[in-house]
Design goal:
580 residues; 7-stranded mixed beta sheet; 6-stranded antiparallel beta sheet; 24 helices; globular
């Protein structure tokens, strides 16, 4: 607690006649030794905790609250994460329209207020502060544990209900459908999905092991184990997810895909479901979490460099041609495609898409879902779309020679085609399509731009600090920076100066990882006249690299390095992204 408030409290209770002035003076003279002013007032002065809280509130000019008498809605409680509440001794106990009610033990803990107001701001809420006693805080804090107890109780009930499975079979006359409709399994799935959303996970993995079923969340690109369930529950949990996604629960031999829509905290959340058969009839489930309420971000929000935004903006205005985005699974290709579509979406153009699956819905765009099982493939869909008078076509992925050839011919006949391919870098897009059987002269005539991208983890803004970089790594980074064209470098970095990098020290907001969120890094290869000639001649890689240097293309490594100079990411992420 601040020394000013310590002195004010001592003076307040001395004036009220609640403590002896002599004892107060003795404490003042030796207060640095052991006891806090709270301990002194409670033990030596005989002040009650609630009286102490009321005094703090009066001195701070706010109200006090007895949290032991408060019923707290879990949704309100979790607006401040548990680790943040413990670290800052701040707890949310009520919400009135657009105001969040928060109790503090120390009403002058300005760091706590800053953290609380940041969290409330993300939800569009203002904050009204109250003062609570330590006992009241502990009483309210225990309500966080109710969530854990809820999971434990659900697991115990589910274990009892599914106990016959331990013998290798269910009770006679009890069907799988009856089991999965039961409350325990339903609640387990609901808890898993809700916690994943609240923890800002992008994916949920539910996978069987020898003696357990493991639930992992992917947060900021990294998988972390969130929960382990008894192995006897795995098939029932998978079956419950299948029911919610309208999949066949009696089919365990082939992969299945589906979708679940839920509402959490007033937000509509979509879960894209993928079920994959494993050994001995077991299945793994992966659920991609899509927050439909967020809408489609801009290229700037994704983290694209202004120079890259300019290049993409110029190429999407062209009436025809091919724009391709490459990168591994989970590198943000689909989100970038949706962003580009949103940029060119207008009443005067007909935009159609072929997707597997449809992740976000865009008003004014005709979006089609691929169904391989009935023959509605990317190639078949592309043939059909060409009879729909389209101006712009987005094909989720070019996977085979038939789709590649159709896309090239569509681009030749006056259509703008957007799609993705799996390659390591932008230069790799051309040989990938040539390997699919596309004629070099046709590709040279249609390819407008190739984009390769990755996602780098962002430094947590709450614990960001300058980083100490080993001399060898710093020297290599400086050498790489000197090769980057000046127009790409941030103003904060002067040519020839020692680069300054940052890291996250780890805090409650980022779970101690030092990272929170991700930022896109990219390299963009424009197909100029000279590069078209190189492609038409069979694509000699050395000549292509020479042309890329001539157009001052920066690499993925260099763009990540720029983001590190800007303080968005770390040197470790520069090295990781470069290795992918």
């Amino acid at each position: 607690m601040k020394t000013v408030l310590q002195n004010e409290l001592l003076a307040f209770f001395a004036k009220e006649g609640k403590i002896d002035e002599g004892k107060a003076k003795e404490y003042e003279e030796g207060k640095s030794a052991k006891k806090t002013v709270d301990d002194f007032l409670l033990k030596e002065g005989g002040i009650s905790e609630e009286a102490l809280a009321q005094a703090k509130a009066r001195l701070a000019g706010i109200s006090s609250i007895d949290l032991t008498l408060q019923e707290i809605d879990p949704k309100v409680l979790n607006l401040i994460p548990q680790n943040v509440a413990l670290n800052y001794q701040a707890i949310a106990f009520g919400k009135d329209r657009s105001t969040l009610k928060v109790a503090l033990i120390d009403p002058r803990n300005y760091q706590a207020m800053q953290a609380v107001e940041f969290l409330a701001g993300e939800e569009g809420l203002s904050v009204k502060y109250f003062v609570s006693s330590a006992t009241g805080f502990r009483s309210a804090y225990q309500k966080y544990e109710l969530l854990r107890r809820e999971v434990a109780e659900v697991l115990e009930a589910a274990k009892e209900k599914l106990a016959p499975e331990e013998k290798g079979e269910m009770e006679e006359g009890v069907s799988l459908e009856e089991v999965i409709k039961g409350a325990p399994v339903s609640r387990i799935v609901a808890v898993i999905m809700r916690h994943a959303f609240e923890g800002k996970a992008s994916d949920i993995h539910i996978e069987p092991a020898i003696n357990e079923s493991r639930v992992r969340y992917r947060v900021d690109g990294v998988l972390r184990t969130a929960l382990t369930l008894p192995a006897t529950l795995h098939s029932a949990v998978v079956a419950r997810i299948k029911v919610l996604a309208n999949l066949r629960i009696d089919e365990t031999r082939i992969p299945q895909d589906g979708r679940i829509s839920e509402t959490f905290g007033g937000k509509d959340i979509d879960f894209r479901i993928s079920v994959l058969p494993l050994r001995e009839g077991q299945e793994k489930v992966v659920m991609r979490i899509l927050d439909a309420s967020l809408g489609v971000p801009t290229l700037e929000q994704l983290g694209f460099h202004p120079e890259h935004v300019s290049v993409i903006g110029k190429n999407i205005k062209r009436p025809h041609g091919l724009i391709l985005i490459s990168g591994p699974t989970g590198s943000g290709k689909s989100t970038t495609l949706y962003t580009v579509l949103n940029m060119i979406n207008a009443d005067g153009v007909n935009i159609s898409t072929l997707e597997d699956p449809v992740e976000y819905f865009i008003k004014g765009v005709n979006q089609s879902q691929i169904h391989q099982e009935v023959g509605f493939t990317f190639a078949a869909g592309l043939r059909a779309l060409l009879r729909q008078d389209p101006n712009i076509i987005m094909v989720g992925e070019i996977r085979d020679s038939e789709t590649a050839t159709l896309a090239i011919h569509a681009a030749l006949t006056g259509h703008l085609i957007l799609s993705t391919v799996h390659t390591n870098d932008a230069l790799g897009v051309v040989p990938r399509l040539l390997d699919m059987g596309v004629e070099p002269f046709l590709l040279a005539a249609t390819l407008n731009v190739a984009i390769a991208q990755r996602l780098a983890r962002k430094i947590c803004s709450d614990c960001k600090a300058p980083a100490e970089i080993p001399e060898k790594v710093l020297a290599e980074a400086k050498k790489e920076i000197e090769m980057i064209p000046v127009r790409y470098l941030p103003e904060i970095h002067q040519a020839g100066s020692v680069p300054i990098f940052y890291k996250g020290k780890g805090c409650p907001r980022c779970g101690g990882s030092g990272y929170r969120g991700r930022v896109a890094v990219a390299e963009i290869l424009q197909v100029t006249r000279e590069l078209s000639r190189v492609i038409a001649a069979g694509f000699e890689l050395a000549q292509a690299r020479k042309e890329a240097e001539a157009q001052e293309m920066i690499t993925l490594r260099q763009d990540t390095l720029i983001k590190a100079l800007q303080g968005f990411t770390t040197v470790e992420e520069v090295l990781r992204v470069s290795e992918e």
